[in-house]
Every structure is written in structure tokens, then in C-alpha cells.
Amino acid sequence: MAPKEQKSKEQKALAAANSSKGKRKKWSKGKNKEKVNNAVLFEKATYDKLLIEVPKYKMITASILADRMRINGSLARAAIKELASKGVITAIAKHATQSIYTRAIPAAV
After folding, report:
1. Pairwise CA distance, residues 107 & 109, whole Å
2. Which of 46, 57, 82, 101 could be joined to 89 by an S-S link, Cβ 3.0–4.6 Å?
3. Is 62 left (phi over 0), alpha (psi -120 to 50) or beta?
4. Cβ neighbours of residue 87 under 8 Å, at least 6 residues apart?
5. What percent of the chain has pLDDT over 70?
6. What angle (nearest 5°) sits at the alpha carbon of residue 55, between those of residues 65 and 61?
7. What SS3 string covers the chain?
């Protein structure tokens, strides 16, 4: 077996510097939130679904409408205002940021 070749100090330092570069920690790219493609305007089918299904919900908020109907927040707020003006839903609590509505219960005769 032949004896190993001796390296100079410069060669040893260079080898040590190069070997540590290969084992660096790989950072993750971070968590990416999935983009939702919500509608900006009502289509005929979505509007009909709004008029039929939403008055049957127990709790109605802009975020619930946006999630279930796949519409954006401003469109959901406009839809809630329209349903409230028709008297199909009634307000429970109103605040600057969040308003909560429920289905309109007909008065007992």
C-alpha cells in the first residue's frame, strides 16, 4: 500500500472550506396560501342560488356568503344589504366590520 500524499496547509484549508459548503441547511420556501378564485359579479345561476338558499341559512355573514357561494367580500356585503331590504333576512348584530343576520321568522298569527 502506497503512502498517502501530504497536502499543504493551503490545500487543507481550501478542502475544509469547500466541504462545509455542501452541507448547508436548506431553508423551506415558506407556506404558500392557496389562492381562491372568487366571482366579482353575479352570474344568473349564482344569483338564483343566493335568493333560494341564503334565506334558509341560520347565520348569515359576508364571510359565510363569500365562502359558500364563491363570491368576493364586497359582493357578499351588497347581497346581504339587498336581502335585508327585501325583508328576507333580519339583522342580529351590526358593527362597522362585521354584521350578523339570520333568516326572517314570520310573525305568529
Report:
1. 6
2. 101
3. alpha
4. 104
5. 88
6. 30
7. CCCCCCCCHHHHHHHHHHHHHCCCCCCCCCCCCCCCCCECCCCHHHHHHHHHHHHHCCCECHHHHHHHHCECHHHHHHHHHHHHHHCCEEEEEECCCCEEEEECCCCCC
pLDDT reading at 19 higher than 70: no
- Residue 107 cell numbers, joined: 310573525
- Alpha-carbon distance 5 to 24, whole Å? 29
Cell numbers given for 52? 333560494
Q: For residues 1 and 61, what is the distance between their CA atoms, to the nearest angstrom?
A: 82
